[in-house]
Amino acid sequence: MKIDFDQSRSLHHIRRVCLVTETFYPEINGVANTLKFLVAGMRKQGIQVLIIRPKQHAGDRSVNQGELQTQTVPGLPIPGYATLKFGLPLRRRIQRAMQAFDAQAVYIATEGPLGFAALRASKRLGLAVLSGFHTNFHEYFEHYHLAFLRRLVFRYLRAFHNATAVTLVPTKHLAETLTAQGFKNVQIMARGVDAVLFSPAKRCQSLRSGWDVGPHDPVLIYVGRIAHEKNIQLALKTAEAFKQLQPASRLVLVGDGPLRESLMQAHPECLFVGEKSGEELARYYASADIFMFPSLTDTFGNVVLEAMASGLHVLAFNYAAAGSFIRSAENGTLAIWQDEADFIEQARQIGVLPGDRESIRRNARLTSEALSWETISEQFIQQLTLIKETGSDGSHQKPLLVSKV
Q1: Per-residue pLDDT tens for 53-83?
Q2: CATH number for the 200-368 domain, one of 3.40.50.300, 3.30.565.10, 1.10.287.950, 3.40.50.2000?
Q3: d(Cα 150, Cα 197) in Å, to the nearest integer?
Q4: φ and ψ at 107, to 5 degrees?
Q5: DSSP 289
Q6: Which of 49, 142, 174, 181 could make a disulfide contact with 147, Cβ separation 3.0–4.6 Å?
Q7: Which CATH superfamily is domain 2-192+372-404 in?
């Protein structure tokens, strides 16, 4: 990945940034993970950050810790996501918080009622606004019997993002897709990975023994939400097909979600271990051998990079993070987009040729080492600085900062 900063080195970094999001660390999801690293990168550069987000529990309150401040607003549970909430559109409260903080630019990471209210508040204050397209929410509706809302939601998302100066997306494919569908000023900002935390060195034989597998028995792993929109059934079908070739193999599923209890009962041969994070998650990754990413709805898939950094052979569809960074037979395996039969067949090929996995796993690790969050954070800061200096409406925006993935 190459990032061109040549034309923007003369810009002076902004000092106060407001970040608006429905989710943030320590919540476990790709958006929260990305924002955690972006905030860390800004703070490392001496930038003060105000995070506006929903309250996640009764004791969750606004805090002022100098460089990092938090303004919480009342929230309601997101349907299908019991552990997450969306913030109420309290525009005046948000506007007062932005004024008191003296924000210079705003990044809106989620497009719900909270994000909409923050967009209105930012416009009233004349602040430069950057937005991120982190989640294909319009694609989720089919999995929750709400397909009739898909077109309406997509129109809202397009109008929302077109009201901001720039929309950041993680891949070239998504940028081209959204641009073709009427999104304006779309630019690419890829994702990074913590290659120190996620490492093959974290492999743990005692953990594998607890999974009832031997040192050389292949372990397939899935990390993510246990839900329809993640195409979790394909992971289970694939593991079953793989087991026909490798009878000693085991599937470990890390994560939680609405399907976990029913799938645990239906598939006692699989290990459902719940949510993991930090060092424990790193050990789970590194102690497996093959990572399956069957999702067809993710905009990126941070877990793909985490698995590559952990030295796993990744099997995924040819899109999002996998499509950007994996080269089949070199550092992972790509299946034809939306072709579930090919996904299963590619898994069978991995089972037939287990000897190829070692070189693929080494190359996966090498690929991940070039994807530092420090580089991504610097690009993000430059983009915020640029929209502040060129105007909040994006009319003079120039595509200076493009991640080539």
Answers
A1: 998 777 787 887 667 899 999 988 776 666 6
A2: 3.40.50.2000
A3: 38
A4: -115, 120
A5: S
A6: 142
A7: Glycogen Phosphorylase B; (3.40.50.2000)
